[in-house]
């Protein structure tokens, strides 16, 4: 397996709107991020992934871009960006930008031109079609409720938008459009940025003819644009034209990607991307009705899914490792216990992820164990996906309480409440009223409290990050699941040369006994990290685990 700095790195995702507000307008900004670089340095991360900071009317908080080469007014200016980049580099921290090129804002000049007439040179930059019998060109549903097509009376045609109607899809079949995107990417890379996280990048190639999806009413058309016919060709072109000329880190967000496809996207000989964000583990608590149709997740499925990705990509591609981000609920509320065992379970989940093979991503506030939030009324929510879904289900006659229950479990604003810096007003996020209310638990869960507590979740993350720097085994070692059928324990090993680590995780509040499998032969056991204090002389062939206990042992293979 080839070594690479991006395999050895730990990435920290910043959602700028919610990170740190420096000017009191209630919205996080670039100067706020600059003022917290020391914090990130202390945590020990190597790369920041910045969710979009480009000019945007904010229909989807920056994922609707109206100018790729300028900064959103609320976040600051290009000068602020240059300063952020310079200061981060001074601290040895790299910056990875979000690249949102499946769609733009409808306020992007390309779209303004495109919709102006059928013969405008930019008409073909987007996907325009005639209606069918006074209805949309096909039956696809948008990710944010309602049809994926919007009628434009001016030219009597519809345009495709897989997300909101203010996010028209770009037409990647058009070579001129692709060239403009590559020019824009080079402009950022020449400025010195260190990589791209590519938003729904496996949606850019649509099946010719845009066929109807099976079923009545509006239907998910993913099979006609996820991993579409020209996707590898487009990514290889992008790699040839842009990526291959720089030393950078790339990750493609890819709903609906399988491990076999991920090998094609990330294989070393393929010249496409370094890694992908897959979603299989994020779908474990969704029923047939999709993300809002909540079902309990099972540890058995969780282990099988994580293991499948670990094993399938080993030596063939590269994994990204994440348990939450700005689109997902907080991991401690979802897979851990955000009540009695908050601290223990946050550390246990972090151990689970950070000891695996792949590049770990930490989402802002995760390192403090920030939790989901349960606002009592829809008026406190800001996310377009949540608000549209609420309206649609209420219209269909569902009980408010039932809909709010889904929102509390799965809504994206769970992850977007302002970062909890301290226990002062607005959690120390900023002086103005925050754009989204703070989570009331900031009084006890906040960075200032955790800095002063050596046993805090923050300091535990610091140690996990340091271990990855100390042991190349943690980066490159092979993974093996053990005790596959244990209902409460997730345990796995990693092996590299003559070394091995054993990761033991109790996923629940019970007290199961870990019994070492006979075929694990070891010498010189050393405890690398744990979330409880451990007696060094304990016989580790049989360990009575405490609620949500996590331990990592290092052995020499005997
Ligand atoms: C995925 C992003 O992570 C999400 O926040 C956004 O709404 C959609 N793509 C559309 O850009």
Q: Could you describe the 3D structure shown?
A:
Keywords: Glycosidase, Hydrolase. Its EC number is 3.2.1.10. Belongs to the glycosyl hydrolase 13 family. The protein is an alpha/beta fold and 558 residues long. It has three domains: 7-104 and 175-460, TIM Barrel (Alpha-Beta Barrel); 109-160, Oligo-1,6-glucosidase, Domain 2 (Oligo-1,6-glucosidase, domain 2); 478-557, Sandwich (Immunoglobulin-like), CATH 2.60.40. 27% of the residues lie in helices and 18% in strands. It is built from 16 helices and 22 strands. The strands form six sheets. Strands 11-10-9-5-2-1-15-14 form an eight-stranded parallel β-sheet. A five-stranded antiparallel β-sheet has the order 16-17-18-22-20. It has a three-stranded antiparallel β-sheet with strand order 6-8-7, with no helix packed on it. α8 links the parallel β10 (249-253) and β11. α8 (259-266) runs parallel beside α9 (299-313) and α11 packs parallel to α15. The chain is globular, with a radius of gyration of 24 Å. The mean pLDDT is 98. The structure holds 1-deoxynojirimycin.
* Name given to the CATH architecture of the largest domain: Alpha-Beta Barrel
Helical percentage: 25-40%
Major sheet: order of its strands?
Answer: 11-10-9-5-2-1-15-14
- How would you sum up the global shape? globular
Radius of gyration: 24 Å
Q: How big a fraction of the residues is strand?
A: 15-25%
Organism: Fodinisporobacter ferrooxydans
Domain Glycosyl hydrolase family 13 catalytic: 13-416
EC number: 3.2.1.10
Pfam family, one: Alpha-amylase
């Amino acid at each position: 397996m080839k070594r690479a700095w991006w395999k050895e790195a730990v990435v920290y995702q910043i959602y700028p709107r919610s990170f740190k507000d420096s000017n009191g307008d209630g919205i996080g900004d670039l100067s706020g991020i600059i003022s917290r670089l020391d914090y990130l340095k202390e945590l020990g991360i190597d790369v920041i992934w910045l969710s979009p900071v480009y000019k945007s009317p904010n229909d989807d908080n920056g994922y609707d871009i109206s100018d790729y080469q300028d900064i959103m007014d609320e976040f600051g200016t290009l000068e602020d960006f240059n300063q952020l980049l310079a200061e981060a580099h001074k601290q040895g921290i790299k910056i990875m930008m979000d690249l949102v090129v499946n769609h733009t804002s409808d306020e992007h000049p390309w779209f303004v031109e495109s919709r102006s007439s059928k013969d405008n040179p930019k008409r073909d930059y987007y996907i325009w079609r005639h209606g069918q019998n006074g209805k949309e060109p096909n039956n696809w549903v948008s990710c944010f409720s309602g049809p994926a097509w919007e009628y434009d009376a001016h030219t009597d045609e519809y345009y495709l938008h897989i997300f909101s109607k203010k996010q028209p899809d770009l037409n990647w079949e058009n070579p001129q459009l692709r060239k403009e995107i590559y020019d824009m990417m080079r402009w950022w890379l020449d400025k010195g940025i260190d990589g791209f996280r590519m938003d729904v990048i496996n949606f850019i190639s649509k099946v010719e003819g845009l066929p109807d999806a099976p079923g009545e009413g509006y239907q998910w058309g993913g099979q006609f644009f996820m991993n579409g016919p020209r996707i590898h060709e487009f990514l290889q072109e992008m790699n040839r034209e842009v990526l291959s000329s720089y030393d950078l880190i790339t990750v493609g967000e890819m709903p609906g990607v399988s491990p076999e496809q991920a090998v094609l996207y990330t294989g070393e000989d393929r010249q496409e991307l370094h890694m992908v964000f897959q979603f299989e583990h994020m779908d474990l608590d969704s029923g047939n009705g999709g993300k809002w149709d909540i079902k309990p997740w099972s540890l058995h499925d969780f282990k099988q899914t994580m293991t499948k990705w670990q094993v399938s990509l080993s030596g063939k591609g590269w994994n990204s490792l994440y348990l939450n981000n700005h689109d997902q609920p907080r991991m401690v509320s979802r897979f851990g216990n955000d009540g009695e065992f908050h601290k223990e379970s946050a550390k246990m989940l972090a151990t689970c992820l950070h000891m695996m093979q792949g590049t770990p991503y930490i989402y802002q506030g995760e390192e403090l164990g920030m939790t989901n939030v349960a606002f009592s009324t829809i008026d406190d929510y800001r996310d377009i996906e949540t608000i549209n879904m609420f309206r649609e289900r209420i219209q269909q006659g569902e009980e408010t309480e039932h809909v709010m229950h889904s929102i509390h479990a799965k809504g994206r604003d769970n992850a977007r409440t302002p970062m909890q810096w301290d226990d002062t007003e607005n959690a120390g996020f900023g002086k103005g009223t925050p754009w989204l209310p703070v989570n009331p638990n900031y009084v006890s869960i906040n960075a200032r409290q955790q800095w002063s507590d050596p046993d805090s979740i923050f300091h535990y993350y610091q140690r996990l990050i340091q271990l990855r720097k100390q042991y190349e085994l943690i980066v490159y070692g092979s993974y093996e699941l053990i005790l596959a059928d244990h209902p409460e324990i997730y345990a796995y090993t990693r092996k590299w040369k003559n070394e091995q680590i054993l990761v033991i995780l109790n996923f629940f509040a019970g007290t199961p006994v870990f019994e070492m499998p006979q075929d694990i032969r070891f010498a010189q056991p050393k405890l690398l990290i744990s979330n409880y204090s451990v007696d060094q002389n304990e016989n580790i062939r049989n360990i009575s685990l405490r609620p949500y206990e996590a331990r990592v042992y290092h052995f020499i293979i005997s």
